[in-house]
Amino acid sequence: MKKLLITGFEPFGGEKINPSWEAVLRLPNEINGFEITKLLIPVVFELAAKKVIDVAEDKYDAVICVGQAGGRSAITPELVGINLRHAGIPDNEGNEPHDEPILQKGENALFSTLPVRKMAEYINKAGVPSQVSYSAGAYVCNDVLYSLLSHYKGTKTKVCFIHIPYCKEQGKAPSMELDDIIKGLIAAIESIAV
């Protein structure tokens, strides 16, 4: 059986929950021939990516990181990570970088190595709104995506990041039912060829 590591974030920005972790936590332990390992990561620049890499090492066939994107109404697999850290609000340890590179000599951008267009198609077919996103922003989500893509470049480990909307329980709009977020994540994993 192949192995997939999927991560969600702790709450941040004054929120009591983070729907990324709430959804990841409720995923089945096996999907589409993948044994699923779930990991909670901090909303902290550099530290979040380090935690994923420390746990994943080279033991996983795929790593999918999930994060909340307030203001989005669809599940959005990210096509590209950029070599930039820029915070509109401090992370959970008070870091607030402005226009700093993630890697001093890193490439400007790296593309997801999992089939994000196919993921969006499968999520839509499951009845959940989805579209490919061309910007993971410059906050911790992008920091994780770019760092992982750089770390695993040229290896067997495939990587992507999926942004999800607020969940209804957060009382913000636009939002999505947690069950639909879970259904969308399952569909995304089902799109990956085993």
Low-confidence stretches: none
Rounded to the nearest angstrom, the distance between the terminal CA atoms is: 9 Å
Helix-strand category: alpha/beta
Widest sheet: strand order? 2-3-1-4-8-5
**How much is the average pLDDT?**
97
Give the helix tally: 5
The outline comes out as: globular
Rounded radius of gyration (Å): 15 Å
As a percent range, the share of helical residues equals 25-40%
Main sheet attributes: strand count, strand direction, barrel closure: 6 strands, mixed
Tell me the β content. 15-25%
Topology as a string of helices (H) and strands (E): EHEEHEEEEHHEEEH
Q: Kindly state the number of beta strands.
A: 10
Q: How would you concisely characterize the structure shown here?
A:
With 194 residues, this protein is α/β, with parallel strands linked by helices. Helices cover 27% and strands 23% of the residues. The chain is globular.
Describe this structure in words.
The protein is an alpha/beta fold and 194 residues long. Helix content is 27%, strand content 23%. It is built from 5 helices and 10 strands. The protein has a 6-stranded mixed sheet with strand order 2-3-1-4-8-5, with helices on both faces. A two-stranded antiparallel sheet has the order 6-7. A hairpin with a 2-residue loop joins strand 2 (30-31) and strand 3 (34-41). The model has no long low-confidence stretch (mean pLDDT 97).
